[in-house]
Amino acid sequence: MARMVDVEDMSHVYVTDKGASLAVAGIHLSVEPGEFVSLVGPSGCGKTTILSVIAGLIQPTSGTVRIRGKPVNGPSAHVGYMLQQDYLFPWLTIWENAMTGLEIKKQVTSGSQAYVRQLLDQMGLAGAVNQYPSQLSGGMRQRAALVRTLAAKPDLLLLDEPFSALDYQTKLTLEDLVLETLRSEGKTAILVTHDLSEAIAMSDRVIVLGRNPGHIRRELHVPEPIRRALPLQAREEPGFHRLFRELWRELQETEGGEVDAEAEGR
Ligand SMILES: Nc1ncnc2c1ncn2[C@@H]1O[C@H](COP(=O)(O)OP(=O)(O)OP(=O)(O)O)[C@@H](O)[C@H]1O
């Protein structure tokens, strides 16, 4: 079976009126179907740039990017993108928001409606379908945004700090819920996060980036008991804190390693 994501020797240069700047260089990244991979690193090391290139939102300056063996030429229905902000339409109900992608693609069928209903149920939103985003908490809105992303049945999910605007308790609850859903659906995911504890608890593999220009410094495989558990439980597993410290040290060594300081020692 083809790899889900194959990035080979990719670099990206941003050109602005102030000149050209090399954001990332020499990026090699492969992700297998069903794998959950996190990208961590100091601010400006190119995490969002890498996700945007994989999503087909920006073209790499050099190198190749393939999804399921096919070169990426632009945004694809096989790839879902979820951001820190939920971007729900305030004038639509949660149900209407969840259905927008399918409406635009004219894929509203009784089957797709049933699938969205099942996802809303799984995300604990069955009672909120007729409510508007402003009537919901931040965590509920992020869950609704995830349902909308999953409704299109993407094979690959790109998650750019989707939990960072939430309070700590909501974030922990949502991590479990999201990972459980993605696992049951057999999805592949790449998560960008500043929270090392979240990266370890959610992932099969954590990729540490450095900057100037953005490059991959190291890759850590999360061992079996931690990897199998859901995030809340994973934090209790032996070996979790050792891995945390290893990642922390790695990031401290990167120039200006700014990581979520409150995450230290969790
Ligand atoms: N649209 C753009 N135009 C010019 N430069 C950009 C643009 N987007 C990002 N950059 C630059 O590219 C580099 C990588 O940025 P990117 O946003 O990918 O990093 P990041 O690791 O996601 O950062 P953060 O953790 O702060 O979100 C940075 O130096 C940034 O200033």
TrEMBL record:
CDD domains: ABC_NrtD_SsuB_transporters (cd03293). GO terms for molecular function: ATP binding; ATP hydrolysis activity. SUPFAM superfamilies: P-loop containing nucleoside triphosphate hydrolases (SSF52540). Residues 5-238 form the ABC transporter domain. It comes from the Bacteria. Pfam families: ABC_tran. Keywords: ATP-binding, Nucleotide-binding, Transport. PANTHER family: ABC TRANSPORTER ATP-BINDING PROTEIN, TAURINE IMPORT ATP-BINDING PROTEIN-RELATED. This is ABC transporter ATP-binding protein.
